[in-house]
Amino acid sequence: MSTTELPASHAELMDGVYRWQRHIYNLTRKYYLLGRDRLIAGLDLPPGGTVLELGCGTGRNIILAARRYPDARFFGLDISAEMLGTAGAAIAHEGLSGRVMLARGDATDFDAGALYGVERFDRIFVSYSLSMIPGWEKTVLAALAALAPSGSLHVVDFGQQEGLPDWFRAMLRGWLKKFHVAPRESLREVLESESRRTGATFHFRTLYRGYAWLAVVGPRQ
Question: What is the E.C. number (predicted)?
Answer without folding.
Answer: 2.1.1.-
